[in-house]
Amino acid sequence: MEGRNKVAATDLGWSVLTDKDLDQKVEAAYNRLLDNACKLRQEMSQDVSLGAALKTSLECLGDNMNDEDMILFNWHLANLEFANAGLLSNISLAFWDQDDPYDMGGDHGFLPGGNGRLDQLLTENVPITFEQTVHTIHYGSDGVQVVAGGVVFEGEMALSTVPLRVLKSGSIKFIPELPQRKLDAIKRLGFGLLNKIAMLFPYVFWDTNVDTLGHVVNDSSCRGEFFLFYSYATVAGGPLLLALVAGEAAHKFEIMPPIDAVTKVLQILKGIYEPQGNEVPLPIQTVCTRWGSDPFSFGSYSNVAVGASGDDYEILTETVGEGRLFFAGEATTGRYPATMHGAFLTGLRESAKMAHHASVRTLGLNVEKKSLKDAHSASVLADLIGSQIWNLAAFL
Q1: Can you give the pTM of this predicted structure?
Q2: For residue range 223-254, what is the model confidence (pLDDT) as tens digits?
Q3: Which terminus of the chain has fewer Cβ atoms in its 10 Å neighbourhood, N or C?
Q4: DSSP states of 278-330 as a string?
């Protein structure tokens, strides 16, 4: 296992004074259990959940994990649910890590000013129509019609980049219906949830030498609630903290009033920093995501659910309608799913495919015109030769 699946806890700042030896012990136990769980799949005839396999491996440890150990262990499980945007009880043991061989090494990169700056550069001088909700897509050999409300957009080709859960919901009707092979893959793949709270403070009160801060809780049912904080102070141009909510907690967060969520986060931060003599001020501005309730996403990103495999990502990639309807997005790449760079690369991939199909059609049209012209010339020549033969026969 590597990359996004295993985490070196020693690289994090912790919200409790965790004993270093205990930290390393639990981290080693977690990684060992993960390896053992993955070995189980070689002995199983059918796919089960990663959560069930980890539970079985954990039970084999017996009394080697005490209550204090389990608090840290549950943090690692929360981080695993964050990586997969899903409950471990829904994640495939057989294929949950199928993208590991393509993991990109190195540090994470941050764009100063946010990802919006990249969007602005990529969409410069590109006409974009907003507030048009697509509900029907007609596609066929003669082109594509995209219906949004009372507006119909027509074109030679169309590229769908809607999130997987939108395809699952059926909120967009495809005419004709997508091939059964693609519908089955859409059904099999999972699509999970991760939520965040972004908080802008009047000043920095945390250690900016640490990019991430881990927070552990005693209640295992809340293990994903504000379990990880990201510091954006060095790249956002202001004192910005991001709190992550994963797993079951991410679903509960959907119905939690924002003021309650912010209050709980502030209590956590005060518990961490005020004993150190650092006052935690009220944030100037906060934003709480609700990705599960958003009708244009219904969640965050894809995962390999029980019964699915990495092949399903490739099926979602397939073009339909004789090179008329294309698909991009993080759920259409088996190598880099659930990532921003994965989504970006699929856009480049589909752009190349669309350009290829357009060229083939243009070439085919030219060949067809040339064939028709040649056929017409041959017909004229045949008529001319025929008439000359007739004239010659009449003369004789």
Answers
A1: 0.85
A2: 999 999 999 988 887 899 999 999 999 999 99
A3: C
A4: ---PPPSEEEE--GGG-TTTSSS-EE-BTT--THHHHHHH--BTTTTEEE-SG
